[in-house]
Structures are given as structure tokens and as C-alpha cells.
Design a protein that fits this description.
By secondary structure, this protein is an alpha/beta fold. The protein has a single domain, classed as 3-Layer(aba) Sandwich (Rossmann fold), CATH 3.40.50.720. It is built from 9 helices and 7 strands, in the order βαβαβαβαβααβαααβ. Helix 1 packs parallel to helix 2. The chain is globular and about 50 Å long.
Length: 254
């Protein structure tokens, strides 16, 4: 069943990290609403698989292998998408990872830099490459993936990750406010624990602890985040920008 909103139909949606988890779920949700879905991921084979599934189901999708830590790779993808379709309407920066769970004193320069390269620079580069295309038509919506970790700092598990997602929240606010009078909206989403391959890398002890923080008593589903991304882009909340939406089953994580 579709959302019943032609605001999404035939619009171009670029989704990073679309090979799995929340990115994959969101790609399929946008395809359900007849958007033209651009699946991008460093795992090009898996991104193409998702794109092919969309097309086989009657949707319209293209896939690109993109490392979001490479500005040149993003610029090339954006150029190809604009050449093919003329513009970009929506951007969902889903690509990101915790990389490795470590207590604070075990975080070295390499893991810190790689975390910020992926989660912060990846979002920064993609927005900088897509925004000029949105500004040409004075419209567009950007949704960035943050995390509840930005609220509690992710102690003992991944302070580097929490810090990187805090940067995403701050960057989102700045971009939203800078371009608010030019038809651009920018929002971040801060999920609690979601049942994705991202969480499967955690130990059972960590998974159990995270679930205990959620009053609903369960992990969220990727589709529950994807439907929120769709709503943000749907044109039904045009006054929403410059904030992060907490989706956590009632867990404040403060």
C-alpha cells in the first residue's frame, strides 16, 4: 500500500548506504511511492542487487558504487545522476558505521579518524555535492543519519561514534539554517537500537543492555526509520527543519 502522496512520485532520491539496513529499507519504501531511487553504497554489488529488485518490482532505480569518504566519487555520482535525470530532490545520508566498539582509552588515532571520515566527512561531502543542484531549483530535502549516541556519548562502547554523530547533528542544524530561505530543508534522525547488520556486530551483552534501555522492550525495525524519512520528504511537514528527531521506543538515553 502506497503513502498516497504524489509529491514523491517521479522525484529523484539519492540514498547512501543503501545496500543494507536502514538505507536498504528506505530505498524500497521510496520505490513503493514511485520515486526514482538512486542506490549508492561502497558495496556496489549489493547496491545493484537492491536496485535490480526495485526494477523487477516495477520501480525505477539505478545503483552506483560510492565510497562516501571520497569527494571525487560522490561528485562523479551526482554528475551522472543529474545528467540522467536533470536534478536531485531528496538526499538521505544513511551511510555510516561504528567500525569498532572500544572503551575510550583504547581508541587510537586511526579508528578515530576513520570514524569521522565515514560518519562526518561522508555526510559533509555528499551534502556539499548535492546542495548546488537543489539550489538551482530552490527546493530539496536532506535527511542525515545521526544516533541516540550523540545524547549519552556512548561511554565504554564507542565515544568516537557518539562524537561523530554529535557532529552530524550540529552540521545538520547549520546547513538547515543557512539554506532555509532558499527552499532547502535539512533534518537529522537519531534512532535508538535498530535491528540491522550494524547491531549484529555487537556482543550479546551489549545488545541486551541496549534493549534494556528501551521501554518498548524491543529493537526498532529499519522500515520504521524508512517511513519517517519518507514523511520528512513528503511535503506534509514543510515547517520541519534544523532539528534531530529521536526514534527510540521511549528511551531517553540521557
Amino acid at each position: 500500500m502506497t503513502y498516497g502522496n504524489d509529491f514523491i512520485e517521479n522525484k529523484i532520491a539519492v540514498i547512501t548506504g543503501s545496500a543494507s539496513g536502514i538505507g536498504k529499507a528506505t530505498a524500497k519504501i521510496f520505490a513503493r511511492e514511485n520515486a526514482i531511487v538512486i542506490c549508492t553504497d561502497i558495496d556496489e554489488k549489493s547496491a545493484k542487487k537492491i536496485s535490480n529488485e526495485i526494477n523487477e518490482s516495477g520501480g525505477n532505480s539505478l545503483a552506483y558504487g560510492v565510497d562516501v569518504t571520497s569527494r571525487d566519487a560522490i561528485k562523479k555520482m551526482v554528475s551522472q545522476v543529474v545528467t540522467e535525470f536533470g536534478s536531485i530532490d531528496f538526499l538521505f545520508n544513511s551511510a555510516g558505521s561504528i567500525l569498532e566498539r572500544l572503551p575510550f582509552l583504547e581508541i587510537n588515532d586511526d579508528i578515530w579518524d576513520k570514524t569521522f571520515d565515514l560518519n562526518v566527512k561522508g555526510t559533509f561531502y555528499t551534502m556539499q555535492c548535492v546542495l548546488p543542484e537543489m539550489l538551482k531549483k530552490q527546493s530539496g530535502v536532506i535527511v542525515n543519519m545521526a544516533s541516540m549516541a550523540h545524547l549519552n556519548g556512548s561511554p565504554k562502547i564507542a565515544i568516537n561514534y557518539g562524537a561523530s554523530k554529535g557532529a552530524v547533528v550540529t552540521m545538520t542544524k547549520g546547513v538547515a539554517r543557512e539554506f532555509a530561505d532558499q527552499g532547502i530543508r535539512c533534518v537529522s534522525i537519531s534512532p535508538g537500537p535498530i535491528d540491522t547488520p550494524f547491531q549484529e556486530t555487537a556482543s550479546q551483552e551489549i545488545r541486551t543492555e541496549l534493549e534494556s534501555w528501551v521501554p518498548m522492550g524491543r529493537y526498532g525495525k529499519p522500515e520504521e526509520i524508512g517511513e519517517l524519512v519518507l514523511f520528512i520528504c513528503s511535503g506534509k511537514c514543510d515547517f520541519m527543519t534544523a532539528d534531530t528527531i529521536l526514534v527510540n521506543g521511549g528511551g531517553g538515553f540521557r
